[in-house]
Amino acid sequence: MKRFLFGLEKILELREYRERIAKAVMGEKAGKCTILEMDLEENARRTLVAGRERFRRGGNLSDYLAGEHYALRLGAERERLMKVLVMAEAEREQARLAYIEASKSKELIIKLKEREEAGYYKAAARDETKSMDDIAAMARAHGLASAAAGGS
C-alpha cells in the first residue's frame, strides 16, 4: 500500500511555525506582565516599610520629610507601574488572541489532513480487498478449470 501524501503539508508546516511564534510572543508578553506585577508587590512592600519608618522614635523633621518624599516617589512609581501593567495586559490579551487564531488555523489544516488520510486508507483497504477477491476468484476459477481438465 502506498503511503499517504498530504498536498497541503507545506501550509501545515507554515501554520505550525506561525503558532510557535505566536506562542513565544504570548509568553514574552506574559513574562513582562509578571515582572510588572512583581515590581508592584515590591513597591507595596517598600511603601509599608517606609510608612513604619516615618514615625519611628528618635526621628527628627528632616527624617520625616525624607520619608514623606520617599513615600511620594513610591506612590508616583506605583501609578506609573499600574499604567504600564494595564498596557502590558492589553498587549498580552492581543498576543493571546493572535495565538488562538494561529492555533485554530493550524487545527483546521490538521482536521483536513486527518479526514483526507482516513478517506485515503479506507479507499486503499477497499481496493486491496477487491484485489484479493479478484485473486481468489481467479484461483478458484483456475482450480475448477484444472479439476475439469484433470477429470476428463
How would you portray this structure in words?
The chain is mostly helical and 152 residues long. It is built from two helices and no strands. Helix 1 (9-54) runs antiparallel to helix 2 (61-151). The model has no long low-confidence stretch (mean pLDDT 90).
Distance between termini? Answer: 42 Å
In this structure, how is the largest beta sheet organized?
A: none
Radius of gyration: 36 Å
Number of helices: 2
- Helix share bin: over 70%
CATH class: Mainly Alpha
Order of helices and strands: HH
The CATH architecture classification is Orthogonal Bundle
Q: Layout of SSEs?
A:
Elements: H1 9-54, H2 61-151
Helix pairs in contact: 1-2
List keywords for this structure.
single chain; 152 residues; mainly alpha; Helix Hairpins; 2 helices
Summary of the model, kept short:
This protein is an all-alpha fold and 152 residues long.
